[in-house]
Amino acid sequence: MINVHVYITLKEGVLDPQGQAVQRSLAALGYEEVDTVNVGKWLKLEIVDGPDVETRVEQMCEQLLANPVIENYTYTLEREEKV
Amino acid sequence: MKAAVIVFPGSNCDRDMYHALTDFTDAETVDLVPHTSETVEAYDAIFLPGGFSYGDYLRSGAIARFAPVMQSVIAEAEKGKPILGVCNGFQILLEADLLPGAMKRNKHLKYMCRTVDVNVENADTCFTRAYEQGERLRMPIAHGEGNYECDEATYEALKANNRIAFTYASDVNGSIGNIAGITNEAGNVLGMMPHPERAMEKLLGSEDGRRLFTSVYRHWRDAHAVTT
């Protein structure tokens, strides 16, 4: 099995109302050094290993997991080492 | 006119839409069509109601876009049939790429449920012909993700081609240009966040939604008028 970690964030320049709310709350708690907060999503997929895992993950992101109009995605693959 | 109201798991304005079409237009058939249906080819106009399709998991409308019936909805849209998406229906049209742009959480992160002022920006579509250009309507909104976002080029194209059908009279959710509803380039697909189907009776606050449904009906009637 492969663990795939998909991170979805709003694109640069797209106003992030959730991030702004969190940033204001942090400032209210005294963490005034926090200039910007971005809120995104993390999805963990457990995938059966195969020849074109990366291509298929890419397609999953494009088709469903992210909305490419306003969101960026990155992912990492983590293969479990066989003992 | 044969009208289809598509019912997704989680649709909750489907009955209101059905009521609007059966009681305020002369449509001969109005069917509640399940999301599993293979085709909507037999219908003259298709309505995607508001609600929380598939629980809005992942993103509003993202999963509904892949419901079996949507392939046929997309095909009928391309043929030029009127397709109306209200609220979650609008979000589904965006996810299905029938309309450009995307929805974000409302600017103030609050779910909003109240009646707002809506301007008719384009009274020259098959959905708005019974309105006056520039007319101000009262319509309910009920959404948490109605903050319409698109890139600058798309916004300029929407303006240049008269594709902004409705705007809010004030900034209610942060949408670019106060956009409340847009059409596709051909003008036969309309997505809007305000709920015309909930503005059908004065008793319930407003009857300004009626003319949207009569517009679609008249459009169909005129296209099928017997010319002798």
UniProtKB/TrEMBL annotation, chain A:
It is an enzyme of class 6 (ligase). Pathway: Purine metabolism; IMP biosynthesis via de novo pathway; 5-amino-1-(5-phospho-D-ribosyl)imidazole from N(2)-formyl-N(1)-(5-phospho-D-ribosyl)glycinamide: step 1/2. One of its GO terms (cellular component) is cytoplasm. One of its GO terms (biological process) is 'de novo' IMP biosynthetic process. The keyword Nucleotide-binding applies. Keywords: ATP-binding, Cytoplasm, Ligase, Nucleotide-binding, Purine biosynthesis. The keyword Ligase applies. Pfam families: PurS. InterPro entries: PurS, PurS-like_sf. Its EC number is 6.3.5.3. It catalyses: N(2)-formyl-N(1)-(5-phospho-beta-D-ribosyl)glycinamide + L-glutamine + ATP + H2O = 2-formamido-N(1)-(5-O-phospho-beta-D-ribosyl)acetamidine + L-glutamate + ADP + phosphate + H(+). Part of the FGAM synthase complex composed of 1 PurL, 1 PurQ and 2 PurS subunits. Belongs to the PurS family. This is Phosphoribosylformylglycinamidine synthase subunit PurS. It comes from Salicibibacter cibarius.
Automatic annotation (TrEMBL), chain B:
The gene is purQ. Pathway: Purine metabolism; IMP biosynthesis via de novo pathway; 5-amino-1-(5-phospho-D-ribosyl)imidazole from N(2)-formyl-N(1)-(5-phospho-D-ribosyl)glycinamide: step 1/2. Keywords: ATP-binding, Cytoplasm, Glutamine amidotransferase, Hydrolase, Ligase, Nucleotide-binding, Purine biosynthesis. The keyword Nucleotide-binding applies. Its main location: cytoplasm. It catalyses: N(2)-formyl-N(1)-(5-phospho-beta-D-ribosyl)glycinamide + L-glutamine + ATP + H2O = 2-formamido-N(1)-(5-O-phospho-beta-D-ribosyl)acetamidine + L-glutamate + ADP + phosphate + H(+); L-glutamine + H2O = L-glutamate + NH4(+). SMART domains: GATase_5 (SM01211). GO terms for molecular function: ATP binding; glutaminase activity; phosphoribosylformylglycinamidine synthase activity. NCBIfam families: FGAM_synth_I, PRK03619.1. Coiled coil: none annotated. PANTHER family: PHOSPHORIBOSYLFORMYLGLYCINAMIDINE SYNTHASE SUBUNIT PURQ. Part of the phosphoribosylformylglycinamidine synthase complex involved in the purines biosynthetic pathway. Catalyzes the ATP-dependent conversion of formylglycinamide ribonucleotide (FGAR) and glutamine to yield formylglycinamidine ribonucleotide (FGAM) and glutamate. The FGAM synthase complex is composed of three subunits. PurQ produces an ammonia molecule by converting glutamine to glutamate. PurL transfers the ammonia molecule to FGAR to form FGAM in an ATP-dependent manner. The keyword Cytoplasm applies. Its EC number is 6.3.5.3, 3.5.1.2. GO terms for biological process: 'de novo' IMP biosynthetic process. This is Phosphoribosylformylglycinamidine synthase subunit PurQ. Part of the FGAM synthase complex composed of 1 PurL, 1 PurQ and 2 PurS subunits.
